[in-house]
Structures are given as structure tokens and as C-alpha cells.
Amino acid sequence: MDRIYLSSCGIIPGCDITEKLHEIFNAHPSDTEFVFDKGDYYFSPKLSRDYRLSNTDVIPERKLGIWLRDMKNIKIDCSGSRFLFSGHMSAVTLDNCENVEIRNCIIDWPKPLAAEGIVTGSGDGYIDMFVSSDIFPHRYRDGWLEFDVGNGEWYPMSRYSHIQFDAVTRTVRRASGDRFSAKTIEDLGGDIYRFGCGYTDTSIGNIFVLRHNERMHAGIFTERCRSIVFEDITFHSCGGLGCLAQFCTDLTYRRVNFLPNTKAGRKVANGRDDGMHITCCSGRVTITECSFTGLMDDPINVHGCCVTAAEAVDSRTLRCRFRHPQAQGFFYWAKAGDEIAFIERRHMETLGTLRASGYSLETRDTFLISFESDIPSRYLEMIADPECMALDNLTNTAEFVCTDNRFGSCRARGILVSTPKPVLIARNIFASSGCAVLVAGDANYWFESGACHDVEIRDNVFTDACLSSMYQFCEGIISICPVVPEPKTDKPFHSNIRITGNRFDTPDTPVLYAFSCKGLNFTGNTITSSPCADKWHGGTALIKLDHCIDAELSGNLKVGLFNLNDIETADCENIRWNGKKRQ
């Protein structure tokens, strides 16, 4: 393997290296280690390409910073450098690369892509906040705030999903998630603004993360890649999803952190949306020793992408439709040989599978998929109703290993997982303001597919900061909560989920909600009663099972006094509670 010290090629600290670095990569596409001198390097949106990003706004093209395309056997040692970006763009893009390692850098925007307001006062129908123009450059225009993100780009503050953090603990204020939305803004002078709002439960010094701009770019975007390692990378800002990988095989994220740049005066804000989003990947995805704080959406989401069957073109070909507006137009949703599942959407029952023989994109919304054999007649009858049948690519599903991470207080949940391959979630610490772990899956709403068949959640610590606000699917600290419009107890969606050896500290908050699950095991866990808050969650039991079958719940230790029932069940069969069958 050749080694290139980039300073010898004119890549030196203090310069905009966007185009020059891309030229060097193109000239050395394989078997090369690139080494940066430690320093600050600048990037601007000078490169672009049409990429179709999962769970991201649809735009004609993406602006790119560091761009690796068709590269193989590559190492990039950033030597602890800071990579500083301007305007809306992806920091790093990998396209059709194999065996690549990128390590040891900080990714930031000097003009950050999320802002903060510090509470200075409140009253009936308003909250006053200090928004530093030095730390978060902005202007007051036409009765609203607009933020400068660099490259001459200004974006108005969003009108929703601004999250409040406690000044001392830097955790989301209890029961405040998604409740504050600004209706009016008045400039009081001296960078202090009066936000007219219906929600005014706050305290002096508390921090509101103020979202602005749109979800247009990922921090690190990886597509059609194999055997990729990201290590010792810290994000201090990001304008969309943090790390987005789609249609990739074998990914490792080790010590990839999402943390505020406190040296620059930021207290909480870093990422505008999710931390790591893994869509339609295969092989093994490993996320380990990472830390997440202050994100404005879920730190980790691992899932597929369901589509619906719109019509039968012939006996072996279907026209299908992408259903979510932020997940469409994929060039690589399927390829010849992939195993495609047919799912009846009302009961979310998998009816069977066929092998794909071809895939072609028609529009952003539709594509054609052909199969190696005839489509069964009963499927064709169901496809006559375009709302009846969904398809999922089972080949594009990954084994998931999530260990030794810290899930600090962020908006919404901690981990979302929807994959039929083995899942291990172990030795993590959770302080998620929503549920800590969501075992999800649906083909009706988000279309983030994936029935889980082998999930192990063990030896984790769930602090009393977990489930301190209510978001979607937050029925318990661990929520097994697929979207099944008409559930059948004898045909559950998820199966074989084992929750063992964990520690839950809870202020009368449900620790487990399980819906449409078979073979659930909740054993050997310790549940302690936390005095940190009064009961606020609507749940009435520590454990609730709904449309579940064959569950074992035993050997769990309770410490302290609780105002919740131990367990409640609805439409369940064969539930064993402490060694006895529950009637």
C-alpha cells in the first residue's frame, strides 16, 4: 500500500481544499493511505451530484465536501485535524467504495446548523431568550429569525420541534418534548427575543435548541459500499442526518461522537436530526464506544424500506410505489437475486418471498421489479387493491451490534431497530428523553420495514432520564411497538426478543411495552424506583403486553416503592409470570 503525505501535494492547513483533495483521490483510487498534517482544513460546496438519500428531503443534487468514489483499499488518517464546512453540504461522501478506513478528525461548521436560545424570562404566552449573534449568526427579518450557515445561505427558524434542556443537567426538561413552538418573535434588543407561544413551562437559564434550515444533507453519506470503518470522529454540527448509510455491506462506527462544541460556546446543540441512520444495508453493522448528546432526533435507526405494490404489469412484473416523501427514487432498492418479501399490510403478515430478476426506476415515486418465477395468483388478487400489499427487500437487511455506547439526552428515542437479522444491544448507558429502545417496523406510516426475529438486549443501564417526554411509540423505556393496523395474537409481527440483566431506574415510568410479539423473555433485570420526578406518564403498569404469545417474565428484582401495577396484559396467550402461567 502506498502512503501519501498530503502536505506534499499542496494540502496544507488553513486552506479550502475541496477541489484539490478530490483531484488527488481520483488520481489514487486504490491501495493508498492518505495522511493529513494536523490542522484546520476548509471545505465549501463546490462539488455536486444527484444522490437519493433515505429519510431526507428530495432535492435535485447534493453538495459534497470530501468525496470518495469507486475507491478500494484506502486509509485516511486525519491526524486529529478539524474539517470545517460552510453552507449546506455533506461533509464526507463514499460511493461504491470497498475496504476504506477514515479516522481521527473533528467535523464542524463555524456557523452551526442548529442554534440555541438561553431563557432570560417568561410570562403569560411568551418566553424571552438570548440568542448570541456571535455564536449563532442571525438576523431579525419580517418578524422572524433567520440564521447564517455560511456560503451566503440564510435559513429561517423552524416553527416546530424546538427542544428545551435543563441548564444544570443538560437533559431534556421533563414532559417538555415537542411542546414548544413559536408563533411570533419580537426583537427586544441586545440579542434577546420574545417568542410568543402556548407553552411556557421553563426556568431562567434553560436552553432551547432552535432548529433551522432543512434536512438536505447527511454528515457522512455512504452508498453501495463494503467493509467501511469510521473511527475516532466527532461531529459538532450537522444539517441533517449525521451518518447515513444505504445499500452498504459491513460497516463499523467506532468512537464516532455527536457532541456540542463547548469551546465555541455551544452548550447542547450539534446535530439537527438523527445521529446514525442505517437504511437497507446488509452484512454486519457495528456501532460501539460512541457518544450522543443533544441531537434533535434519534441517535440510531436501523431499518429497511417498504414499498407498496401498485399494479401487476404481467405475471412476473410489478409496478411498485415508494410511499414516504423522504424515501423515494432509490437507484438500488433491489437487484437480481435479492429475496423480496410480500407483506399483507392490515395484519403485517409475511405471505412468502420471491427472487428478483430485475429492477428499473421509472420516476421518483415508482419502479418496476421483475421476478425469477410467476407471482402467485393469490398475491395478484390482493395487488388489485393498491393499499393491500407491501414489499420488503430481505437481502438488504443487516445484523446489528450496538455495544458500549452512551445515549445522552436527545430529542425522541435512543435506538430504533427493524431488521430480521440478529441484533445485540449490550452494555450501553441510556438517558434518552423518549423510549430508550424501540423495536419498530411498519409498512403503513413511516414504511421503515423489518420484523425482528432475534433481538438480545442485555447488561444495559437505563437511567431515570429515560422516557421523560412523550414522543411517538414511547409506551415504555423499551417499546416493542410495530405498526400493525389489525393485529392477530396467533400471527405476531416480532419474535424471539430477550431482555436480560439490565438495570432500570424509573420514576413510575413503564419499563416494557410489548405489542404483537412471540417468544418474549424478560428475566434477570433489576428495576429500581427513582425519586427524581412525580409520575407523569399515562402508563399504569411496569410491564404491559398486548397481543403477545409465549412470554416468560421471571427473576426480576424490584427495589423501592412503585405506584404502578407489576404487569397488565391484553389479548395475550401463554404468558408466564414468575414461573406461573398468567390467567
**Can you count the beta strands?**
53
Largest sheet: 16 strands, mixed
Beta-sheet strand percentage? over 45%
Number of helices: 2
Structural class by helix and strand composition: mainly beta
Summarize the amount of helix as a percent range.
under 10%
Which term fits the overall shape?
globular
Describe this structure in words.
By secondary structure, this protein is mainly beta. The chain has two helices and 53 strands. The strands form seven sheets. The chain has a 16-stranded mixed beta sheet that branches. It has a 13-stranded mixed beta sheet with strand order 4-5-7-18-20-22-25-34-37-40-44-48-51, with helices on one face. The chain has a seven-stranded parallel beta sheet with strand order 24-33-36-39-43-47-50, with no helix packed on it.
Key features?
single chain, 583 residues, mainly beta, 16-stranded mixed sheet, 13-stranded mixed sheet, 3% helix
